[in-house]
Alcohol dehydrogenase
Amino acid sequence: MKAAVVREFGKPLVIEDRPDPEPGPGQVLVAVEASGLCHTDIHAAHGDWPVKPTPPFVPGHEGVGLVEKLGDGVTHLAVGQRVAVPWLGKACGRCEHCRSGWETLCEDQVNTGYGCDGGYAEKMLAWADFAQPVPEGVSALDAAPLTCAGVTTYKALKVAEVGPAQLVAVSGVGGLGHLAVQYAKIAGARVVAIDVTDDKLQLARELGADLVIDARTQDVGAELKRHGGAHAALALAVNPAAFQAVNSGLRRGGKLVMVALPAHGTLQVPIFDTVLNGTSVIGSIVGTRQDLAEVFQLHAEGRTKVIRETRPLAAVNDCIDEVLGGQVKARIVFDLNAGG
Ligand code: NAD
Ligand code: ZN
Ligand code: ZN
């Protein structure tokens, strides 16, 4: 099988021929049909974060494909069934977080495409209990971005407890943000989308944003305040200054949900303003299996739209450059059936 491999941080990925992996007990082998390029994969390939993966590794945590082989003890999945393999590759199932519905906080988790090989490959392994069945009517190419970008923003809005009479700011209308705009609309909120390119602002409008702010030319905090301030702001742009900007546009009692993970990012939180205004700063990491099931359900019901461009896996290095250059409309998805 072909796989795109990070051999060294910051160097181009290498397309390699590798033997098909064998599923161990509780695992399945998945023939990957589609695999999304999340900005996290770029952070992984660059070794951006304090906890780093160990090269050589195969990135990718938006892999979707057909179960090809069952490991020992797997009875609830069938060969030929379509599954998605998210960032949360596996959690322990026994700790306080797992038992209280917060498996995403499990300290014994394994992350797909980071702590084990991921979806930038023709075949991949998945732990059967965490491989998410994809419902009928959801294509592999659509399911891929939902598997991280979708579930992460859907969860971030849950964490912010967004309601219908609220103003929600979505900072960064990329892979994550284009879905965040839609989930915030589904939650009934008024949505303000913020970005730095005309195309993304136009896309946000097409996807239902009520207002847009161009962070190149407008003062994000002042604009949000002009509309009463945000009840919730999702920080999805890979830029610490963008976190600072939306934080300053919260209304009293508002919540900043930090989602993007820029390398070496810090946020100055003014103590006086935070106390007096009763604002919160919350971190949010992906979503649970149940969150992902809900994300797939919404898509199967025709309530969300995935904006994607498909590419062959061989184009992986050019694709990374395109994401970093802000040239991608929303999400790139590798089509593993496209050859090359
Ligand atoms: P992306 O590159 O597709 O999108 C980023 C968007 O931010 C782009 O549209 C870009 O134009 C916009 N942007 C850049 N500067 C801006 C600014 N100053 N103000 C407003 N917008 C600006 O990236 P993505 O795949 O959507 O991922 C975003 C981030 O979220 C990454 O850091 C990724 O690692 C992180 N992430 C976190 C989680 C989590 O669970 N917390 C999950 C997935 C991704
Ligand atoms: Zn656990
Ligand atoms: Zn991701």
Observations:
- Residues 140-159 form the longest helix (20 residues).
- The chain has a mean pLDDT of 97.
- The chain has two domains: 2-147+307-335, 161-283.
- The CA atoms of residues 298 and 304 lie 7 Å apart.
